[in-house]
Amino acid sequence: MTASSGQNSMDSKPSLAKVAPLEAVLFDVDGTLCDSDPLHHQAFQIMLQEIGFNGGVPITEDFFIENIAGKHNDEIAKILFPDDLPRGLKFCEEKEEMFRRLASEQVKALNGLYKVKKWIEDRGLKRAAVTNAPRPNAELMISKLGLSDFFDAVIIGGECEHAKPHPQPYLKALEVLRVSKDHTFIFEDSVSGIKAGVAAEMPVVGITTRNPEHLLMEAKPTFLIKDYEDPKLWAALEELDKLKA
């Protein structure tokens, strides 16, 4: 798909028809199940300020989106501490502990998530969470959202040979669920995640939780939605139901 056709998909009728009959739905976690990026931003901001990063000036949301959001901690450590990777990795571990403290009190499901959950359950589809987050983070958020019994598998980028934006985590999910890429689609909210899904040759529904639309469109999602209540999503799901019938 070219950049221009990517843009056009915003204007034309959104469709997931090519995956009919649908077998599985894959979800990213941060920013896709819940709006957790502000908590990550808060944890990074507090801890980076404590060590005098950027001359003690708090990192901005733009800096967070460009350098941190959706990326694996190995990559973040290299960006923040290019001259001292071990320090960067230790910093990221400590930041995750702070994030979990914040998340345990503040995680809320994205608008419409439970409606989509019911739609998936009613049709007996397989489902997995696929994330670059460390396993303790992913399991905490999934548990706090009441989704521990919903997911058949939780695939962690850091436990694969390559994390997103490499397609491997999504390919591993297909393998674990024993489903075909031709009958599966993905929900994602970051450029890194959308790129991973597209590279794994599956349609990706991009969610504009925090990241700017123009950046997400560059990664070539099938279409973008505001949240799980978006009429564009339900038009596409209704079309899938009709094709199944």
Please outline what is shown here.
By secondary structure, this protein is of the alpha/beta class. The protein is built from eleven helices and six strands. Helix 2 crosses helix 5 and helix 5 packs parallel to helix 7.
Estimated share of beta-strand residues: 5-15%
- The H/E string reads HEHHHHHEHEHEHEHEH
Helix-strand makeup class:
alpha/beta
Coarse shape: elongated
Helix percentage: 40-55%
Number of helices: 11
- Mean pLDDT score, rounded? 93
Number of strands: 6
Task: Detail the poorly predicted runs.
Answer: 1-11
Strand arrangement within the widest β-sheet reads 3-2-1-4-5-6
How many angstroms does the end-to-end distance come to?
A: 29 Å
Radius of gyration: 18 Å
Query: Main sheet?
Result: 6 strands, parallel
What's the arrangement of secondary structure elements?
Layout: H1 3-11, E1 24-27, H2 37-50, H3 61-67, H4 73-80, H5 85-106, H6 113-122, E2 126-131, H7 135-144, E3 153-156, H8 168-177, E4 184-188, H9 191-199, E5 204-207, H10 213-218, E6 223-225, H11 231-244
Keywords:
about 240 residues, alpha/beta, 6 strands
Structure notes:
There is one protein chain. This protein has helices at 3-11, 37-50, 61-67, 73-80, 85-106, 113-122, 135-144, 168-177, 191-199, 213-218, 231-244; strands at 24-27, 126-131, 153-156, 184-188, 204-207, 223-225. With 245 residues, it is an alpha/beta fold. The protein has a six-stranded parallel β-sheet with strand order 3-2-1-4-5-6, sandwiched between helices. Strand 5 (204-207), helix 10 (213-218) and strand 6 form a beta-alpha-beta unit.
